[in-house]
Amino acid sequence: MNKYSRLTALVAPFVTQIAFLSFAEAQEGFQSPEQEPYEPGALPSGLGISSNASIIDFIAAIINIFLSLVGLILILIFLYGAVQYMTAGSDKTQVENAQNILQNAVIGSILLALVYVFANFLLTIVAAG
What we know:
The chain is mainly α. It contains 3 helices and no strands.
């Protein structure tokens, strides 16, 4: 097992967890249970944000949905790279191509995690101030 395969085996579960947790958080929205789903005459929002939510809540929901979609795309890239690696056989160029795909997916997942942390940090600062 080479170093990229070990790195992928270590990082893939964390990336999957981050993607699913951010997706679940985005689906929950920012509406507390005691609020009405929407006021009479108002259009209901598909994001789970009440009509009296602030712009920060709306931006946070959009960012979480976007990062969830990017996380799902990264999972698909991991799967594609894994299939390429398994079907490469003894062809060196296909093995190297698959390793590059997996390496780029690991780098992308690390960047996704950093963007998620940074975006939530900034939104927390803006909401507090």
